[in-house]
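Hey, I'm writing a tutorial for new members on how sequence and structure tokens pair up, and I'd like a real worked example in the thread rather than a made-up one. If someone can provide the structure for the chain below, I'll link this post from the tutorial.
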Amino acid sequence: MEILKKSLALLLLFGIQFANAQDQNTVQEAFNKSYVLESGKKYNEAIEALKSINAINNYPIQVRLGWLTYSAKRYNESVIAYKKAAELMPASVEALLGAVNSLVAQNKWEEVEQTYLAILKNDPKNSSTNFRLGQIYYNRKEYSKAEKYFSTALNLYPFDYDSMLMSGWNYYFLGKYSEAKELFNRVLLYSPKNTSALEGLALIK
């Protein structure tokens, strides 16, 4: 009886391993097919190749679907796929950044803002996200809000052209002219004839 139990356990284990191997092969084949179709810009067919697996709780599949639906300009579906991926892996930054692309394509700036804030909860020092969030507030003329995010990006990359220039103008509109002047001069070290930095310095004088 004991031998029979052990035999049944081994058969069950083998069956699970075999099923997992089959699942892996199925997923791998679907991914490979999607890459081939994508290379021919057959995005909708590539999407269907992955959707046929019906693996909604698979993170790589959801991220891949997010990208393919974005490429097919099916932006709402793309956001849904990326957000599902983010639910599966809550610390994921890549999934939220993917969602941003589709939100930007739809000019859904309030959702872009909220998604950037969610990214910063996971990755407070993400330089590109801090910079882009700063841009959103700068474009709204919310210069005090923008300062926080531009400053973070600038502290991480003190000689980054975009961070220097945008921080310079943000300081200018905040009336912090000495900080603005220092940054405009730093921009000129990077780009000696930069018209925007020269304009800023002329206004301060």
